[in-house]
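pasting for ref
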Amino acid sequence: MAAQRGQRDGAGRVPAPSAAEVTAPIPAIVDAPSPRERARAIPEAAVARLAVYLRVLSAMAEQGLTTVSSEELSVAAGVNSAKLRKDLSYVGSYGTRGVGYEVAVLVEEIERILGLHRNHSVAVVGIGNLGHALANYGGFPGRGFPVAALFDPDLVGVPVGGLPVSHIDDIVRVCSQREVSIGVIATPPPAAQAACDRLVQAGVECILNFAPVVLQVPDHVEVRKVDLAVELQILSFHVARRADDVPPPVLRPSSNGAVASGDGTAHGVNGMVMRS
């Protein structure tokens, strides 16, 4: 029987490796995942929380804080510390036990994951009340989202936020020239799909939609929908649920024989209400 590699033969000699073993390639070392690969693996809900962490951390940096514990950051962001640590593991930052996280480093890592290392030019389509507010909001440029183009068929040439409004028919040309990467739709519902089609034709692959309609887009286009009426309806649900959780008033006999509730209202006969 032939001796196995690493075993001695009957004469006490270790057999030489075969030609196939000599020429076999060394297995490649698997590199750590790149930032792009890590970003693709982050759940959508965690991405939203990372944006919140970034806002909180940026405020801390402005206040001169250099380190923050997971407990402090979780309280400021409104999440539990375990979820926060899990979210931050996606960006490759685990912090230091007893010290916490370095604020500046964490800001830089989250900005890289969120693609904020460069500006993203924004176009707003539909300059009604909401469009005016978005165009005039000064917080966008400071966060890397300069408004580069405005479109509305009824306000062509009118400056809004220091930027002249263009016609909707010029979306493709203007967005291409100004390298717009994010489109914001604030049009009436019937005009939203046409505006979306023009943005997609211009090469815009990320759209924030305020119109209460479902947009039809190619698979490579990302759409985020913001329906303020739906958000209010959700809040209405919570208000109603809390009202349902309020215990009914405790009824007790009053001095005049009627039944009184805890607030002193006496409920008499035939629907009459008397105060005790």
